[in-house]
């Protein structure tokens, strides 16, 4: 009887704790916090001018792709359901990437063709001749050895890079003052992402456990750069990584900041654009203590919220 009573008390405490968490969870309201669109980075402006186009034209092109390609929107809905998110979050990320970073192809099949062109290419993730798998075996990265899961492992390694190597000289070797992903994971030119979802290779390595678990795709390996690129360029697999990224951002803000951003596609699009959702959720906790009310969208997320009614209509 005493054992049963103890179990009952523990269950009651757990239920009460879960109820308190649910009550404490605040829902981020829809819409933009900024009345006008925040400044668009110069690199995006220059890239668009170089292509002799405009942001409006690029937005219309990706909008039209989504409006006319029912196969694509069908895939988006299916993948979004697998990851437990609303499909508008994926639409927002695709629109943001193809408005500010790259031009959209006219049809989904073009993405498949482009992905196939990378199959079998021989390149590797390296810097100055040193492969990334060799680099992360250095003693400085030993703090990451106990991390469980690909997201925790690669996030730890990125933090070590920022703390110990970025812009520093270590052991007589000078390392660039640049992002880990740009230095080791983009063998063509810094800042390059690929495919429908414009996934960064390092982001893909972080999310590979989640995608393998939910979608059943093979886990990615940093020693197989071609395999990573093929995965993030294949539209079907790329959509899974996109959904996993958005799901992670939503979960991070719930668990770390106690706010639910799932009703604001402009915020999830912003996080898809800037990355590091865990750190940004923690920073929001700090800023909220100083008076901030809600997470704020950047230029990229602002467009998504501004065009939300039109983008919802595509689904």
- Total number of beta strands: 6
Largest sheet, in brief, is: 2 strands, parallel
Query: Termini, distance in Å?
Result: 56 Å
Please identify the structural class as seen in this structure. mainly alpha
The tally of helices reads 16
Strand line-up of the largest beta sheet: 1-6
Can you tell me about this structure?
The protein is mostly helical. The chain has 16 helices and six strands. A two-stranded parallel sheet has the order 1-6. A hairpin with a 2-residue loop joins strand 2 and strand 3. Helix 6 runs antiparallel to helix 11. The longest helix is centred in the first third of the chain and has 23 residues. The N terminus is likely disordered.
Task: Please name the defining characteristics of this protein.
single chain; 315 residues; disordered N terminus; 16 helices; 61% helix; two-stranded parallel sheet
């Amino acid at each position: 009887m005493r054992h049963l009573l103890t179990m009952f008390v523990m269950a009651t405490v757990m239920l009460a704790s879960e109820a308190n968490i649910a009550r404490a969870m605040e829902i981020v309201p829809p819409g933009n916090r900024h009345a006008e669109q925040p400044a668009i980075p110069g690199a995006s402006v220059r890239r668009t001018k170089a292509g002799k186009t405009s942001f409006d034209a690029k937005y219309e092109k990706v909008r039209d792709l989504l409006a006319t390609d029912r196969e694509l929107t069908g895939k988006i809905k299916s993948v979004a359901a697998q990851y437990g998110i609303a499909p508008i979050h994926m639409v927002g990320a695709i629109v943001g990437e193809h408005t500010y970073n790259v031009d959209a192809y006219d049809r989904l099949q073009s993405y498949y063709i482009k992905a196939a062109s990378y199959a079998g290419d021989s390149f590797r993730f390296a810097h100055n001749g040193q492969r990334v798998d060799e680099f992360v075996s250095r003693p400085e990265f030993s703090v990451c050895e106990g991390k469980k899961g690909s997201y925790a492992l690669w996030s730890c390694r990125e933090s070590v890079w920022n703390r110990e190597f970025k812009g520093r000289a270590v052991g007589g070797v000078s390392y660039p003052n640049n992002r880990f992903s740009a230095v080791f994971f983009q063998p063509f030119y810094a800042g390059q992402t690929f495919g429908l979802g414009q996934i960064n290779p390092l982001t893909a390595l972080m999310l590979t456990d989640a995608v393998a678990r939910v979608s059943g795709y093979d886990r990615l390996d940093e020693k197989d750069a071609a395999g990573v690129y093929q995965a993030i360029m294949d539209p079907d697999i790329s959509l899974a990584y996109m959904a996993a990224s958005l799901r992670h951002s939503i979960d991070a803000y719930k668990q770390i900041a106690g706010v639910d951003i799932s009703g604001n596609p402009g915020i999830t699009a912003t996080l898809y654009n800037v990355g590091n959702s865990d750190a940004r959720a923690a920073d929001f906790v700090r800023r909220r203590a100083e008076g901030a009310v809600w997470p704020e969208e950047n230029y990229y997320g602002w467009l998504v919220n501004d065009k939300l009614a039109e983008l919802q209509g595509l689904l």
